[in-house]
TrEMBL record:
Binds 1 pyridoxal phosphate per subunit. The modification N6-(pyridoxal phosphate)lysine is found at residue 252. Its EC number is 2.6.1.118. Catalyzes the transfer of the amino group of L-glutamate to [LysW]-aminoadipate 6-semialdehyde, generating [LysW]-gamma-L-lysine. Its main location: cytoplasm. This is [LysW]-aminoadipate semialdehyde transaminase. InterPro entries: AcOrn/SuccOrn_fam, Aminotrans_3, Aminotrans_3_PPA_site, Class-III_PLP-dep_AT, LysJ, PyrdxlP-dep_Trfase, PyrdxlP-dep_Trfase_major, PyrdxlP-dep_Trfase_small. Substrate binds at residue 139. Keywords: Amino-acid biosynthesis, Aminotransferase, Cytoplasm, Lysine biosynthesis, Pyridoxal phosphate, Transferase.
Length: 416
């Protein structure tokens, strides 16, 4: 680590809130599927900002759009119509499923989920929800009610009110049928669970959720925050299942790296919200809108959904060809891929970063998650797979853990 790198890392660790664990590296630049740290070392990025950089880091069209817009207008509240906002809304509605042509604009996926919750209540006059075990819907107090993992909810106790949320096992149709009643406002689910281990839903489960919600007068809201915008091989994962939901939460890749969020819904859902019932200061700001227009146009022009489909199939084929007793399963959809191991994934993720220059994510303690930009090349995929195979063969988690325990014991003895 260089002295400059140490200085920046020291400053971030000193002043940061420390609620997010930090890697011991300072990233300074990105292009396409590669990022560089302060020392100039390159990494193939299979994190992509947690699935944000679908079109690659610093896509030239997005960069130009941001520069041009920054010279014209940066902020304008949604109460005052704006040319770039109108342009973005037209582009967005042009790629969403038919009938989903009303949009609430915000700044993140969690904000989109908060909006979805309120729109569902006003649209149905009901307050109960059905969410999924292993699902992740955000970390605000409202969105946490739909998030299954107890570690996210428990520190806040009763402030997270999920008494009106029924959790069902993802993929279990019988549980779903039992949970949806005449009191249900909405069923909220991810077409592919990300945090829950990269688990695609079966067509039968999604289609039954659509049928049951229509039968009971409830909404079907698909969380497409991570699956949207070509990640799974379609513009939206809903297209794989042949269903049109009542609403979709969107964010992440929608603006090529600029913070953005949206709840897209039918006219019937939108019209039930009273005027002034929801809002936000920065939602729909011209800078994010300009980036969003450029990003969506690039996705369409460059055939990124098809790229994700083809490259995802290639990536999973290569991963499945690895002969390792440590691998339990390779699963995914498009370029949203998880490799479930038979032991903890953290040592392998660490080794990929530090020894191989490949950035990956964890999804549950056992799963290594790969979320590369759609622009990743087959040659880069080959490099990632070869690196993964090497660390599977070289890393011994038990030995590493024993070394950690021995070092801790030695330190404790010296302190005493």
């Amino acid at each position: 680590m260089t002295s400059t790198q140490s200085k920046w890392l020291e400053a971030e660790l000193k002043f940061d809130s420390r609620v997010v664990g930090k890697h011991e590296v300072v990233m300074t630049r990105g292009q396409g599927s590669v990022v560089w740290d302060e020392s100039g070392r390159s990494y193939i990025d299979c994190v992509a900002g947690y699935g944000v950089a679908n079109i690659g880091h610093c896509h030239p069209d997005v960069v130009k759009a941001i520069k041009d817009q920054a010279e014209r207008l940066l902020v304008m509240p949604q109460s005052l119509p704006n040319d770039k906002r109108a342009e973005f809304l037209s582009e967005l509605v042009g790629v969403t499923p038919a009938g989903m042509d009303r949009v609430f604009l915000c700044n993140s996926g969690t904000e989109a989920m908060e909006a979805a919750k309120k729109f569902a209540i006003t649209a149905t006059g009901r307050k109960r929800f059905v969410s999924m075990k292993r699902g992740f819907s955000g970390r605000s107090l409202g969105a946490l009610a739909f998030t299954w993992e107890p570690k996210y909810r428990e520190p806040f106790g009763e402030a997270v009110d999920n008494r009106n949320v029924d959790f069902v096992t993802y993929g279990n149709i019988e549980e779903l049928r039992a949970a949806i009643t005449d009191e249900t406002a909405a069923v909220i689910l991810e077409p592919v669970q990300g945090e829950g281990g990269v688990r695609p839903a079966s067509p039968e489960f999604i289609q039954e959720a659509r049928r049951l919600t229509q039968e009971k007068g409830a909404l079907l809201i698909l969380d497409e925050i991570q699956t949207g915008f070509c990640r799974t091989g379609k513009m939206f994962a809903a297209e794989h299942y042949g269903v049109v939901p009542d609403g979709m939460t969107l964010a992440k890749a929608m603006a090529g790296g600029v913070p953005i969020g949206a709840f897209v819904m039918t006219e019937e859902v939108a019209d039930r919200m009273p005027a002034g019932g929801h809002g936000g200061t920065f939602g729909g700001n011209p800078l994010a809108m300009a980036a969003g227009v450029a990003a969506i146009r690039a996705m369409k022009r460059e055939g990124m959904a098809e790229q994700a489909r083809e490259k995802g199939a290639y990536f999973m084929e290569k991963l499945r060809a690895i002969q390792s007793p440590k691998i339990r399963e390779v699963r995914g959809l498009g370029l949203m891929i998880g490799v479930e191991l038979k032991e903890k994934s953290a040592p392998y993720i660490h080794a990929l970063e530090h020894e191989e220059g490949v950035l990956t994510l964890q999804a549950t303690p056992l799963v290594v998650r790969f979320l590369p930009p759609v622009t990743i090349s087959r040659e880069q995929i080959d490099t990632v797979v070869a690196a993964f195979e090497r660390v599977l063969n070289s890393v011994n988690p038990r030995a590493e853990r024993q070394a950690e325990l021995a070092a801790a014991q030695k330190e404790q003895t010296q302190t005493e």
